[in-house]
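__Protein archive entry__

___
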Amino acid sequence: MRKSLGQLETLFFAYAQMRKLQTVRTAELAAPLGITAKQERELLGRMARSGLIAQVRRGLYLLPPQLPLGGKWTPDEALALNTLMEDQEGQYQICGPNAFNRYGFDEQIPTRVYAYNNRLSGERTIGTVALTLIEVADVRLGGTEEAKTAEGKVIFSSRPRTLVDAVYDWSRFNSLPRAYEWIRTELVSKRVTAAELTAITLKYGNQGTIRRIGALLEQLGAEEKLTNKLHRSLAMSRSLIAWIPSLPSRGTINRRWGVIQNEQA
């Protein structure tokens, strides 16, 4: 790979390593490298297309700590996501399929990184890291834990928060009815308590989430004070929701929670 570098690429890496740069922005290189703004744009674009550096967004690029001798370089998910969010001055937490896999709920390894955040929405790619960014209000961020990777720390939704999100965001993550079994298993194993689940549901759930988790906890014999706490938070409503939203709404009606048990819990 070293032999394939042109004069400007070699000069670029020498400067970056001397300054110990992890990121560069357009307009930062022209003067120190003695090149024009056009040459700078062409250089950065060429290096990003070649996989020598990774474009975070237009005008912002991630650099490898060392020259990628064996081929193309890509940041890991922590470096990619942290750099993007720091640039946007935002907060994030990895959620959905990535968190399901992390906690052993689902064995499938996602090909994308799903992240709640308070700045961006949509899909983008940084190096080979494919991101699905889900913009949420600031109040929906929280209930997290930190993990470490080779290139930095990364923020995940916690185990109980992930369970609640599997019910709350079921349509996005295709996680019902699987989430009900995950919750049962976690409660039985005592990796998550009914009290933790109740607190997270009240803080980050919506009315549908509270109804479904309240009904489930009641069926599982949770303490009455916990189910009462969930029930008191519900707004008055005569509408019914399905236990499994993807199935026809036919079955026994749980009047207390306003849930149609269209599959046995």
